[in-house]
TrEMBL record:
InterPro entries, A to Z: ARM-like, ARM-type_fold
UniProt organism field: Fibrella aquatilis
Protein name from the UniProt record: HEAT repeat domain-containing protein
Highest classification ranks of the organism: Bacteria, Pseudomonadati, Bacteroidota, Cytophagia, Cytophagales
SUPFAM superfamilies registered for this protein in UniProt: ARM repeat
Length: 165
């Protein structure tokens, strides 16, 4: 986390204090500190702080947080705590990142798979076919397909049919 004197989280080192500050910002709907929350999201190693930060940014619909979330999804350090990151992506217009979500549905734990499948379920009825094709390719290449992968493939095939009608 940036130790800039102007950062709203400056001087807070205890995760509970940081989460309390996030809750204060949420209650006040004070989006003027969105950049500080994004910095916190990108730099914290605490899962609970990261979850609180990403949910606040999703609630505020700060689209510039999406690349940070994607980077975190691809970070080995978050391997066991990606469910909330994927859940938060549902609040953004982020259909272009569908291949990333497809990867997560194939490699994630139960929470990740559940949230990733919900992302698929919430997709619009029509979508850029190249994104669908790339996502289908990722899903179909998993050797050990489970219910989540098959459900996601079915959803993408249904959207393809809508695109073609």
């Amino acid at each position: 986390m940036s130790d800039s004197i102007n950062n709203v989280f400056y001087g807070l080192s205890n995760p509970e204090q940081i989460i309390d500050k996030i809750d204060e910002l949420d209650s006040a709907n004070d989006m003027s500190f969105a950049d500080d929350v994004k910095t916190l999201l990108a730099t914290t190693s605490d899962d609970n702080v990261r979850n609180a930060a990403v949910l606040l940014l999703a609630d505020w619909k700060i689209d510039t947080a999406v690349p940070i979330i994607i980077k975190l999804l691809n970070d080995e350090a978050t391997k066991h705590s990606r469910g909330t990151l994927i859940y938060a992506l549902q609040f953004f217009d982020a259909t272009d990142i569908l291949p990333t979500i497809a990867t997560q549905i194939g490699i994630g734990n139960f929470e990740v798979k559940e949230n990733a499948l919900q992302f698929f379920i919430d997709l619009p009825d029509q979508l850029d076919q190249s994104i669908i094709n790339k996502s289908l390719s990722i899903l179909e290449n998993f050797a050990n397909k489970d219910k989540y992968i098959y459900d996601a493939i079915d959803i993408l095939n249904e959207i393809t049919e809508n695109n073609n009608s």
